[in-house]
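2 proteins. here.
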Amino acid sequence: MRTQETHPAQADTRRTTTRLASVDALRGFSLLGILVVNIAFLASGYRMAGLAEPAFDAPLDWGVRWVVTLVAENKFYLLFSFLFGYSFTLQTDSAERRGLPFTPMFLRRLAGLALLGLAHAVLLFPGDILTTYAAVGLALLILRRIRPRTAVLVATGLTLLLALGFVLLAVLTMAGLDPSATVADTAREAAASNSALGGGIAEIVSEHLRKLSWILVLRVLFQGPAVLAACLIGLAVGRLGALRDLPAHTVTLRRLQWIGFPVGLAGSFVHTMSVWNHTPHKFWGEAVDLVTAPLLAAAYAATFLRALPHLPRLGRALAAPGRMALSHYLAQSLICSLIFTGYGLALLDRVSPALEVLIALAVFAAQVVVSRWWLRGHRYGPVEWLLRALTYWGRPETRRGRAAGP
């Protein structure tokens, strides 16, 4: 298909393939960052409660915690959310070109995401984000005609309102707060959580359901609006076609790096200090991170996209799991559950932070290999195929070289 009448179809196909490959590679890069962050929460009830595992108190343990929090926490889910919004524009454009009714298809897709997310949260990881995407997808559907400039303004407003909310929480909680008592109470709850997660299936599911009661509140009040803000930026970028010709936007990408790295890392340092020092000023750190984390995520994306043409092998390696991101996201939780909970080895709080990162890298490396093998014979990952079947209400072709389905 031609995007401009003056260009031959073959050249346009090459540009489209490159664009999609770079987006897939960026999605794979985001998936790796999410795993490096999530594995700590899957490996310990203490980390899920915001505390360090008491069994690992060596300088190396603290160094790894600080580095992961500083460079990865709250950054990669924003990058993934940006790509969710960007992909939304690809889906709307595809439906329009093919003359398909977009709204019912997208609603079925969101329903599938919600069901997968609920199963994921109850069985494997209560920190699931798929249900958040399902809810945010409804907002995107309502706002799908929004202008790019307006989308950026709304995203900025949401971010600033969230930061203001944390500032108010900081002001309200600073008076009369006893951090030592709070940490002690939380530690007792984390120990009880570990005991449940190391038990049988019924105990694990029950503990996940207990955690969901407060995690859902946090999702609605805080993470949901942050995800929506990132999705709106992705929608704006998709509408402007900014990723279709990256060399034409080199100045913008460079500017994102120059602003995003110093401001983002400075804000992340404040956040990291507030997380691990357990001071009454933790909400101040959250407020700062809400404003600066998107800048650091943008700097990561800009750096990655600028470096990608010079690292074609890395791009191909990351693009494969990026095409199967949903399957691998769920598989990561399953693998970690088999390692850390009573579903399998029950190694909760027995693995150091450094070893957690090494396990994450090993799991992702295995996913790269599996992805490249799987995609040699299949068009979609297994969960992607299921979601596509629900979206189009039909059976997509699975094998490469055949029609892509309805």
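next one coming up
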Amino acid sequence: MRIDRYIHDVILADLHEPTMVFLAGPRQVGKTTLAHILGEKDFTAYQYLNWDDSDDQKRILARDFEADARLLVFDELHKYRNWKNYLKGLYDKQKTRFAIIATGSARLDMYRRGGDSLMGRYHHLRLHPFSLAELVGQRFSSSPFSELMFPVETSTIAQAARDLLRFGGFPKPFLQKSDTALRRFHNERFDRLIKEDIRDTERVHDLSLLQELAALLPERASCRLSLNNLREDLGVAHKTVSHWMDVFERFYYHFRITPFAIKTAASLRKEPKLYLWDWSVVEDAGNRFENMIASHLLKFVHFLCDTQGYKAMVHYMRDRDGREVDFLITINQKPWFAVEVKYSDTTISPHLSYYMQRARIPFGYQVVATPGIHRIRDSIHVISASRFLAGLV
């Protein structure tokens, strides 16, 4: 089964500018597969080169490219210290001959160490795990500051939402739909992230403590993150655990959502909320559900940023009186819509109503796990996750 990825056409259009495409995202999210599909479907010939392969390294450094190739795909090239200047020189001399994709399981926009700028020579795109809209073939049709458009909720959409919650959005375990395969995927991805990706590119001396930190994070998903608590649990300095959390974020293990500052509200707590890219490792049902919603919203804002140039962000809201709303989507720091996540409670959250008025948020959605629900009261939609998520990206 092959699912057309949501940024396939965007990548193709960027390559034809011509512009290099840097395709980043977590390990095993489908970057290499997507690059191969592009090469096979949209180019007469292409060449795939992986920096982790010693023979490919020699070909890369010697610029030994196949004569008929029209697309070059470089995988994990950011591990090469001089990768930036290498691509700059190749692009400047060969941009009319080759289209170029560089993929990596680290944030390629963060690895800008020395050398001349690549400004104007590439577009940076982030590939996310499967989302509900992607799985059911829906394409985002709304525009910023307009009300979201939702498809009719079908049994197919509802089942896909249940499968996503159970197996996560990474292609291999989702398509296999096996609990055994999911457990093996968790173990293998975790080991390779620590012992290969991070070890090869970061200066971390105690990998065992890094593994211990990673094991602590799933139980903290969907909660406000205290670095002091993590520091105490691990017995390390605050600076150390802060650095390690940054490393994990660069390698797409987790992401953090910061509070949105509202001038008319009481001072907000500054602690970010923590979520994992792979929500299937979160055991608590309510926290896993919220994490899945957070991941879909992050994919939504990254899509708007990477493909349409909007300065879109996802935040949460909380004041010192304890009033909290799970998510707020903004464009240029202007509120667009708020989302409150309730696993089963369909009674409209008073905190959502409070912030809708206080922060002048145009649209509000209370998202629940129960399928078949959609009603509107006081401009707030109470809506099932399967319908809400199908209206995103």
